[in-house]
TrEMBL record:
GO process terms (BP): cell wall organization; peptidoglycan-protein cross-linking; regulation of cell shape
Catalytic site: 139, 157
InterPro entries linked: LD-transpeptidase (IPR050979), LD_TPept_cat_dom (IPR005490), Transpep_catalytic_dom (IPR038063)
The name this protein goes by in its record: L,D-TPase catalytic domain-containing protein
CDD domains reported for this sequence: YkuD_like (cd16913)
Swiss-Prot/TrEMBL keywords: Cell shape, Cell wall biogenesis/degradation, Peptidoglycan synthesis, Transferase
Organism domain of life: Bacteria
Domain L,D-TPase catalytic span(s) in chain numbering: 66-182
Gene Ontology cellular-component terms listed: extracellular region
Pathway in which this enzyme or protein is active: Cell wall biogenesis; peptidoglycan biosynthesis
Annotated Pfam families: YkuD
GO molecular function: peptidoglycan L,D-transpeptidase activity; transferase activity
Length: 182
C-alpha cells in the first residue's frame, strides 16, 4: 500500500496520524512539548468553525445557479445550488505572505488526484482549480486535518480538513461553478 493510499484510507475513516511526533503541516516550533499533552485517540474530532448567519452572506451566494462561497473571516466554505445551501465545511486559507485574495472566479479544472510540484510535491486530492493565472485550488489537506489548531495555511489555496465533504463538493460542483471569496 502506498503512503497516499494509506493517508486516503485514514482520512475517509476520520482518523489522523502523527508521524515523528509532528503531524503533516506543523512546524517543530508549533509542536507541543512532550509530557504536557497526551495523545488519547487517533480519531479526528475537530470542532467545526462557527457558521455565519445567512443574512451575512453576500447576495451573490444566493443568486447564482452553482456557487462556492468562502468566508475569509469565518473560515467557512459553503456550496449553494439554486440558492439552496448544500454543503458547509471549515477551511483554511493562505498563510501570511501567501494570502488568499478576495474575488470571484470560476472552477476551470478538476482532478481527484491533483499534485502540486513547486517548490515541493504536495498531494491535493479532490482539487478544483479556480484561478487560472496563479493556480489556486480548493482541495483536501491532510496537514489541516491533522493539525487544525496549529496548521498555518497554504500558499493561497482554500484547504478543507473533511475528506467526505471535499469529495462531495468535487462531485457536485461542475467546471464553471462560481467561486466567491469574501
Amino acid at each position: 500500500m502506498t503512503i497516499r493510499t494509506a493517508l486516503r484510507t485514514l482520512a475517509v475513516a476520520g482518523l489522523t496520524v502523527v508521524i515523528g511526533g509532528i503531524g503533516t503541516g506543523a512546524s517543530r516550533a508549533a509542536a507541543p512539548e512532550l509530557g504536557k499533552h497526551e495523545i488519547t485517540s487517533a480519531v479526528g474530532s475537530q470542532a467545526a468553525a462557527p457558521a455565519a448567519p445567512a443574512a451575512e452572506l453576500p447576495a451573490i451566494c444566493k443568486q447564482k445557479k452553482n456557487i462556492v462561497c468562502a468566508s475569509l473571516t469565518d473560515r467557512t466554505l459553503r456550496y449553494f445550488e439554486n440558492g439552496e445551501e448544500k454543503l458547509t465545511t471549515p477551511v483554511i486559507y493562505g498563510r501570511p505572505g501567501y494570502e488568499t485574495p478576495k474575488g470571484t472566479w470560476q472552477i476551470t479544472a478538476k482532478s481527484p488526484d491533483q499534485w502540486w510540484s513547486y517548490p515541493y510535491k504536495v498531494y491535493m486530492p479532490w482539487g478544483m482549480k479556480f484561478d487560472p493565472k496563479i493556480g489556486f485550488y480548493i482541495h483536501y489537506s491532510s496537514g489541516f486535518a491533522l493539525n487544525s489548531d496549529t496548521y498555518i495555511g497554504s500558499h493561497g489555496c482554500i484547504q478543507t480538513r473533511d475528506w467526505e465533504a471535499t469529495k462531495k463538493l468535487y462531485e457536485q460542483a461542475p467546471v464553471g461553478t462560481t467561486v466567491h471569496v469574501y
